[in-house]
Amino acid sequence: LLSGKTAVITGSNSGIGLGVADSLAAAGADIVLNSFTDRPEDHELADALARRYKVNVRYIAADMSKAQECRDLITKAGKCDILVNNAGIQHVASIDTFPMDKWDAIIAINLSSAFHTTAMALPIMRAAGWGRIINIASAHGLTASPYKSAYVAAKHGVVGLTKTTGLETAREQITCNAICPGYVLTPIIEAQIPDQMATHNMDRETVIQDVMLARQPSGEFATTEQIGVTAVFLCSDAASQMTGTTLSIDGGWTAL
Ligand code: NAD
Q: How many whole angstroms from 171 Cα to the centroid of ligand 1?
């Protein structure tokens, strides 16, 4: 399906980004993995994916909190038929106590990085005559929660950027859409469970059901595979008239 295409996925050495990379590689795409670290295990992830799916996989270190590094990532990738803007971080605090550096980092990594990579990828996609941009937003791109001001603002911004990108490319064979996951059990979420168990004096299952999935009516986590397969669908011809829109994978969260 995607052989001959190159997909650049930001923040893809774990969680959803790695799941999307796996699905795109399984569909035949060559892959550029990314995070801000440059460890042997990052490059080993790339080698393992390449062996598994017999596609080309490179790991390129770049810090998505830095505008120039975002832009250089696309230059170093060389080809970019599919761009997945996935890198993201979270910080939870009330607005009046929210650390200024955390606000700046979340806006930079979760929102501005997608602007910089998109700006660099569009000329490459135009030259190739085809492109797909997939922004990993969140249910928090469509609804809010208290104590997540920077994250909610950034993710609403990503949805706005998605619409504008969709309009600017509407007459071309380029689409831009946002996937809005609810809770997905990635390492970052898994790591929060022990803290929540202590804070609420609850067992693991009660924390998952009553705290984490309280707003997810299905009562189940979405999976990285489900996000990955949706990304593959967005790259297919069947999705060529879908642009500038959002796809929720949230067990009914945003229907409430
Ligand atoms: P994760 O922590 O496993 O993945 C985040 C990725 O971003 C990692 O690969 C990390 O290395 C990378 N990253 C962080 N800072 C970076 C930086 N400065 N430069 C480059 N890369 C950086 O978490 P995840 O759950 O897989 O999150 C991936 C995306 O999905 C995020 O944008 C997140 O907001 C979004 N999301 C996650 C959930 C969920 O429940 N897990 C729900 C909705 C949206």
A: 31
